[in-house]
Write a structure and sequence with these properties.
Helix 5 links the parallel strand 3 and strand 4. A five-stranded parallel beta sheet has the order 2-3-4-1-5, with helices on both faces. The protein is globular and about 40 Å long. It is built from six helices and five strands; from the N terminus they run αβαβααβαβαβ. By secondary structure, the protein is an alpha/beta fold.
């Protein structure tokens, strides 16, 4: 587990993410608004793209809305490939809006289907202790947290220094 703080720079974290443990890395970037989670997540995505990996960026709310809409149109499986196909998926703003049961289901499906298949970067304004409040069921929160962090880079940016 990599904890960001002190003199850790954005480039050091990107290097660690891309080079330790191969292609199937998971990063969970936690912290209050304004500490650079989205900036760092985008930087990880750009660095992965520059290294030749297919990368897709979305917000958690857009991911859920897209899958729910596809489900209603009868093509959720095809839309799911949008999120499971790329080498790196960046999902920003998990936890900014409360998740109902259906939304939690879609997030869980994407994260679990990517497990051991591709890298994922999740950002959240909620701390580890608040993750149970993100989802209507604690079991789903625990599973997503486990899928998102084992083995991984988990970074609490509350006191991080980015340069």
């Amino acid at each position: 587990m990599l904890v960001v703080g002190g003199q850790t720079t954005r480039n050091q974290l990107i290097g660690e993410y891309l080079h330790l443990g191969g292609r199937h890395r998971r990063a969970l970037l936690l912290g209050p608004p304004g500490v650079g989670k989205t900036h760092l997540a985008i930087s990880l995505g750009i660095a992965a793209t520059e290294a030749g990996y297919r990368t897709y960026f979305t917000t958690a709310s857009d991911l859920v809305a897209s899958l729910q809409s596809a489900h209603l149109e009868g093509n959720a499986s095809a839309k799911m490939r949008t999120f499971t196909g790329p080498s790196v998926l960046v999902v920003d703003e998990l936890g900014y809006l409360p998740l109902d049961q259906t939304s939690a289901h879609w997030i869980f499906q994407v994260v679990s289907r990517r497990y051991e298949r591709g890298s994922i970067v999740l950002t959240s304004n909620k701390s580890y202790g608040d993750w149970a409040s993100l989802f209507p069921e604690v079991a789903i929160a625990s599973a997503i947290f486990a899928f998102g962090t084992t083995p991984s880079s988990a970074s609490d940016l509350s006191a991080a220094t980015t340069t």
